[in-house]
Design a protein that fits this description.
- The chain has a single domain, classed as Api92-like domains (Alpha-Beta Plaits).
- The two termini are 16 Å apart.
- It contains two helices and six strands.
- It has a six-stranded antiparallel β-sheet with strand order 2-3-1-4-5-6, covered by helices on one side.
Length: 104
Amino acid sequence: METVKDYCTHRLLIAGPPRELKQFERKADWTDIPGATDTALLDRSAGRVVWVFVTEAPALSPVRIMSRRWPRLSFFLHYDCEDAQIIGLVRAKNGRLTQHRFRY
């Protein structure tokens, strides 16, 4: 897998039991995603929250770690690294990633 060295925009949807999501939001620390900037809550509803943020590379490792810490939640990450013309969609559950990556 190639390393991307530019800015990547991310949209992270986290889904699961509402009670577990509330606990996640209370305890989540965005410093767990190194270099994340422009972090903003995009949507919150019963059973899901959506965050957007920017990093220098796809935030795969931090999402894997979060999914391991919160095994009852599912994490869906969409990222777009414009300079490298790469987009990806990742599903993380209990520390396991399924990734689809495309060049455009």
